[in-house]
């Protein structure tokens, strides 16, 4: 299976091993920890597999408790908290090697006509995504060639990402930069027609660039990094139906970073400017030289 989007769909296709218990693969990657978007996406699949009828997810709230180990399966245990007339609630606990690494609460809502219908307009007017270079093209333009490790990552990347603002590479470019970022994204190939797959794929993608907004005033987004970062929690509200294999604009900002933590907010729009999803995430940021009280290096949380 060489297509990255097909691999993502396969990654989200969990194995049911008992009632309310599912097992997900965790690919053996060179990363220090399992990608948080993968765990969130798989947990949402597990929650969705236990619901009945046409009730799409309307919100999720999650905590990343421990770093997951690449290459080790993750078991998802679902608690059926509530099955109401309009809303369904599920709580999911992700366990790896006997330890809880993640938990998620998701709420599903039967679509209905609302008393109000409005949204604020998008903050920015972004150029057509097809007119912007890919991340690989920007890096190649700056470095002259794409480093081997990044080339391998690009081949495995299930989403095409185009930064609305060109990547910054020098201290002069970073100076006085606002903590904001915006990207166009879409899956690199069609994902099929299951709405749950598109929701979970976008959940996966929502963790890919959101903390960029925290980093932008500090250092270039690509290249050597002087600190370790990890997602702490993640919340999403799904407002309208969408397809993750069609272009969507992810507008991101960081209202504050202090005390070792940075908060980021994201708004996801379709190409017509309709607000599809709202996202909030907090991340942990530690210098590589910082150590815990017992002398251990500060990796993970």
UniProtKB/TrEMBL annotation:
Highest taxon of the lineage: Bacteria
Keywords from the UniProt entry: Hydrolase
Name of the protein this chain belongs to: Acyl-CoA thioesterase
Classification of source organism: Bacteria, Bacillati, Actinomycetota, Actinomycetes, Kitasatosporales
Stretches assigned to the Acyl-CoA thioesterase 2 C-terminal domain: 180-284
UniProt signal peptide: none
Keyword Hydrolase: yes
Species in which this protein is naturally found: Streptomyces longisporoflavus
SUPFAM superfamilies noted in UniProt: Thioesterase/thiol ester dehydrase-isomerase (SSF54637)
């Amino acid at each position: 299976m060489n297509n990255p989007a097909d691999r993502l769909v396969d990654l989200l296709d969990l194995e049911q091993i008992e009632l309310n218990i599912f097992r997900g693969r965790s690919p053996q990657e060179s990363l220090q920890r399992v990608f948080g978007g993968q765990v969130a996406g798989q947990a949402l699949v597990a929650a969705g597999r236990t619901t009945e009828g046409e009730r799409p997810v309307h919100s999720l709230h999650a905590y990343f408790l421990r770093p997951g180990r690449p290459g080790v399966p993750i078991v998802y245990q679902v608690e059926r908290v509530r099955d109401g007339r309009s809303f369904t609630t599920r709580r999911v606990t992700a366990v790896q090697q006997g330890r809880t690494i993640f938990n998620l609460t998701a709420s599903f809502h039967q679509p209905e006509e609302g008393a109000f219908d409005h949204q604020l307009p998008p903050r920015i007017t972004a150029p057509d995504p097809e007119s912007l270079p890919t991340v690989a093209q920007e890096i190649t333009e700056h470095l002259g060639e794409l480093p081997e490790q990044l080339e391998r990552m690009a081949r495995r990347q299930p989403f095409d990402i185009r930064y609305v603002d060109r990547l910054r590479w020098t201290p002069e470019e970073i100076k006085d930069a606002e903590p904001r970022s915006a990207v166009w994204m879409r899956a690199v190939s069609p994902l099929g027609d299951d709405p749950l797959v598109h929701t979970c794929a976008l959940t996966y993608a929502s963790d890919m660039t959101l903390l960029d907004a925290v980093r932008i005033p500090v250092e270039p987004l690509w290249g050597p990094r002087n600190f370790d970062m990890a997602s702490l929690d993640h919340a999403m509200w799904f407002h309208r139906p969408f397809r993750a294999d069609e272009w969507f604009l992810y507008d991101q900002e960081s209202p504050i970073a202090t005390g070792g933590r940075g908060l980021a907010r994201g708004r996801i729009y379709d190409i017509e400017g309709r607000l599809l999803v709202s996202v909030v995430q907090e991340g942990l940021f530690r210098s590589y030289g910082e150590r815990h009280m017992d002398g251990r290096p500060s990796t993970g949380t």
